[in-house]
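Quick start: load a record and inspect it. Here is Fe-S cluster assembly ATPase SufC:
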Amino acid sequence: MKENLITINSLSTKVQDRDILKSLNLSINKGEVHVIMGPNGAGKSTLAYTIMGHPKYEVSEGSIVFEGENITELKVNERAKRGIFLSFQSPEAVPGITVENFIRTAKSSIEDKNISPFSFNFKLRNKMNSLKIPESYSERYLNVGFSGGERKKNEILQMLLLEPKLAILDETDSGLDVDAVKIVSEGVSMFKNENNSILIITHNTKILEHLKPDFVHVLIDGNIVKTGGEEIINDINENGFSSFKTLIEK
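Running the structure step on this input writes:
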């Protein structure tokens, strides 16, 4: 029997007094890959940010339980220390801080201990090579002058080095060409094991051509209206999301 990692119970979320998520339920076990799909504006990114604890997103009802602990009121850094990671849809550039220093500092903060620059550099370059990122990028300022694809690959690099228990990938395949999608997918596959979980949030199916999800959830108007397997992906490819909109409870 698989061990539960995160359970979301009747979660409702507001943004500036506007209801976005509406009594959403979701449970993810260790070793599983879950996919949230839905049209633009359905609440997919809101779900990602709410799990991560972004202060802009107000939980008006429900709870988030991570490894048996209610983390609904915890701050972002406290959730990160417990093993939750969010790959941003549009990663920001951070002038003055190199890629290597940023990730090493983040890992030191999460693990609450000093990380040897020498041993970390070895691991960093190994992962960069696997993602086909030039080693010189480790000394560049974070995302400054990076293309969209380079920024997304840098997010996957952070995930591989931070080794979270739950990785949330928000539109990681957005704006990527075919080769970049394949590389990112390979990085996600390298990360996946029996002790962690992945939540992929997307509105298209490019990245899913290389990753096999355990469960696919369709999110419409702030709630999950359908859960199944890869047959849902095929349905979306053929018919879009229109057929799922009729499943919204009136």
